[in-house]
Design a protein that fits this description.
191 residues; mainly alpha; Arc Repressor Mutant, subunit A; three-stranded antiparallel β-sheet; 6 helices; 6% strand
Length: 191
Amino acid sequence: MAAGAKSIRRAAPAADPALRTVSRPELLAGGSDAAFRRMIHALLSFTRNAQSVRDGFGALIGVSGVQYEVLMSVQRLQGAGGVAVGDVAAWMQRSGAFITIEAGKLVKLGLLDKRADQADRRRVLLCLTAAGHARLASLAPTQTEVNDVLFGALSARDFQQLSSTLDRLQPCGADAADLIDQRTRGRQSAA
């Protein structure tokens, strides 16, 4: 057992099919959704840990976790001339308004530069400033160490499979979020 891992009692399969949380045969084992539920709980736990790591990276360079994510996204996407706010929003799966607000805070901190796109004056381009680049460069050794631990259980093949699976699951996640949003809005308007 890994350090920090706790032994937990395994939940018994739901005896009542009406309590199943999935219906697709690919997600059921022996008619039970217990393995699916374990996988969801493990995924949520890992996601919380990954968000804590993101927030920690941000704290180490004096910004919030989301602002760190914006800086990293701009750094990855900016190329030679900068990256449009809309492209950062699409990459991070956030609204353009959200990215605009967070980017504005990073501009005030002197970590991002914002300017009009010369080809399309309606678009705003973002790029790292020298100070932004320096903060990310100072963080890189810690990122390497922490990320190596975070994904320490993966072989090269596991990493490729996980990356491919997550790429395929991204649109499913967006569709599921839209579906639950519709259901909760419908319930709220009926109340």
